[in-house]
Design a protein that fits this description.
The protein contains two helices and four strands; from the N terminus they run βαββαβ. It has 61 residues and is α+β, with helices and mostly antiparallel strands. The protein is globular. It has helices at 13-22, 43-50; strands at 6-8, 29-32, 38-41, 55-58.
């Protein structure tokens, strides 16, 4: 099973939000890790990322 996570740089929150807006048909959320990396993924994949230190910063809605 392939999990899709779209990664963005630490100064790219606006780009991540734009990606979520361009994919409104999908349920996507935005997370950030301690180093500032930003990830956009489904809620199911987000649970796995949370175990790796990512925290929810935006529901994408």
């Amino acid at each position: 099973m392939t999990k899709k996570v779209h990664m963005f740089g630490r100064k790219s929150l606006d780009q991540a939000r734009l990606y979520v807006q361009n994919n409104l048909g999908k349920e996507l959320i935005i997370l950030k890790d301690a180093r500032g990396r930003i990830a956009v993924c489904s809620p199911h994949t987000a649970q796995e990322l949370k175990t790796q230190g990512f925290q929810l910063i935006d529901s994408g809605k």
